[in-house]
Amino acid sequence: MAVYTQVPAEEIDAFLTRYDAGRLVSAKGIAEGVENSNYLLETTGADGSGHRYILTLYEKRVDEADLPFFMDLLDHLGARGCLVPRFIADRSGQRLQQLAGRPACLIEFLTGISVTEPTPAQTRAAGAALGELHRAAEGFAGKRPNALDKAGWHDLARKCGADFDQIAPGLAARVTEELAYLDAHWPADLPRSVIHADLFPDNVLMLGDRVTGLIDFYFSCTDVRAYDLAITHSAWTFSHDGATFFGDRAKALGAGYAQAHGLTDAERAAFPVLCRGAALRFLLTRAYDWINTPADALVTRKDPLAYLRRLDFYANADAADLLGA
Ligand SMILES: Nc1ncnc2c1ncn2[C@@H]1O[C@H](COP(=O)(O)OP(=O)(O)O)[C@@H](O)[C@H]1O
Ligand SMILES: N[C@@H](CCOP(=O)(O)O)C(=O)O
Question: Which SUPFAM superfamilies does this UniProt record tie to the protein (predicted)?
Answer without folding.
Answer: Protein kinase-like (PK-like)
